[in-house]
Design a protein that fits this description.
Strand content: 15-25%
Distance between the termini: 54 Å
Helix content: 25-40%
Strand order of the largest sheet: 1-3-2
Number of helices: 4
Shape: elongated
Length: 91
């Protein structure tokens, strides 16, 4: 699935959001303040081309999955229950 998402009103806001995310904070916490400033500045520069009409929009891609959990083996061996009701055709 692909969709566009709005990450901020401009490149600076989007960069701030991304760098303040848990992965961003983790990585920036490992470098000195000068490097943090250079990373932030470079990210803003890289995001500028995606500013449009007061928003910064980027295309994201994700897999959309659904699943069902199979019944435990003991329940699979049992005949299906009728919820405690007799069939109207039963004698």
């Amino acid at each position: 699935m692909q969709a566009y998402g709005t990450w901020g009103s401009d490149a600076a806001e989007a960069a701030g959001f991304l760098l303040d995310s848990r992965p961003g904070r983790h990585l920036l916490g490992r470098v000195d303040p000068g490097t943090r400033d250079r990373v932030s500045s470079r990210l803003v520069d890289r995001l500028r081309p995606y500013e449009t009409h007061g928003a910064l929009r980027l295309r994201g891609t994700a897999w959309l999955l659904t699943a069902t959990r199979p019944a435990p083996p003991a329940e699979r061996a049992r005949p299906a229950s009728r919820g405690g009701r007799e069939s109207p055709d039963a004698p």
